[in-house]
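re: ur question from yesterday

yeah so i grabbed the chain u mentioned. its 76 aa long if i counted rite. heres the sequnce exactly as i have it in my notes:
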Amino acid sequence: MIEFLNMDGYGLYVFSSFLFTLLSFAGLYKITRSQLIKEQKKFFSKFGNLTPDKMTKARKQKINQEILTADIFSKI
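ran it thru and got these C-alpha cells back, copy pasting raw so excuse formatting
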C-alpha cells in the first residue's frame, strides 16, 4: 500500500496536484455561487413586485429567461 502511495517517488507531486486542483475547483464554485446569489437578489429586488402585466413582459425578455433558468438549476 505504501509503495502505491509513493508511486516510485512521484506520489508527493501527484497527490499535491490533485489537492491543488480540488481546492481550486472548490474556490471557483464558491465564488461563482456567491455571485449567482448576489445577482438573483438584485433581480428579485427589481422584478419581485411587478404587476401581472409587467411580469409577463419581463418573462419574455431573453436575459430574464436566462436568469430564471439559472435559478431553477441552482436548486438541483
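noticed a couple things. The chain has a mean pLDDT of 83. also The chain is about 85% helix and 0% strand.
anyway ttyl
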